[in-house]
């Protein structure tokens, strides 16, 4: 007989950030992301292995991925998010570095595993584990309100990302019945 508690004993998540342009010049917290050449905001997300959002945080675009992840993890802990089973977090090269990995392990007991793109292949390639969070960004962009960030406050932009994800999950549940 299989013990379901032992099967779901450990959990993994994927962390990433996406820069989006701002559609309203009066928005608070605007910055310039030099890597993506975008003036606007950055959405930092933590998703589960199905691509469902666990946590969203919106900052100015000039906030680095590592700094945004630090704030995101603290916010998750403060809000009491049910991440107690979380053991491993996969991320892209923006989160690499021994100091950051040690910081994550010391503070949260998460193993941060950086998934890098292969240098041997040219053009587009699907990166294992990372495609999940990229698909989630695609789902969020289905919402017309999230194509650009029109909100004055970052809290409102975060709430709209949660609403878009809730809508997606409710539609999937409705198809089953």
From TrEMBL:
Keyword hit for Membrane: yes
InterPro entries: Transposase_11
Ranges annotated as spanning the membrane: 45-64
GO molecular function: DNA binding; transposase activity
Pfam family, one: DDE_Tnp_1
Keyword Phosphoprotein set for record: no
Domain Transposase IS4-like: 14-168
Biological process per Gene Ontology, one example term: DNA transposition
Protein name: Transposase, IS4 family, putative
Native source species: Acaryochloris marina (strain MBIC 11017)
């Amino acid at each position: 007989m299989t013990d379901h508690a032992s099967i779901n004993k450990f959990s993994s998540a994927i962390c990433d950030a996406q820069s989006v342009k701002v559609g309203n010049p009066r928005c608070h917290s605007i910055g310039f992301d030099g890597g993506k050449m975008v003036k606007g905001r950055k959405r930092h997300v933590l998703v589960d292995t199905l691509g469902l959002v666990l946590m969203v945080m919106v900052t100015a675009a000039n906030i680095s991925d590592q700094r945004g992840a630090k704030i995101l993890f603290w916010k998750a802990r403060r809000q009491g998010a049910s991440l107690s089973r979380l053991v491993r977090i996969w991320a892209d090269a923006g989160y690499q570095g021994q100091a950051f990995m040690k910081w994550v392990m010391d503070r949260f007991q998460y193993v941060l595993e950086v998934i890098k793109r292969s240098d041997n292949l040219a053009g587009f390639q699907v990166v294992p584990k990372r495609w999940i969070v990229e698909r989630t960004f695609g789902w969020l962009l289905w919402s017309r309100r999230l194509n650009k960030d029109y909100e004055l406050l970052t809290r409102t932009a975060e709430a709209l990302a949660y609403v878009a994800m809730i809508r997606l999950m409710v539609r999937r549940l409705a198809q089953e019945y």
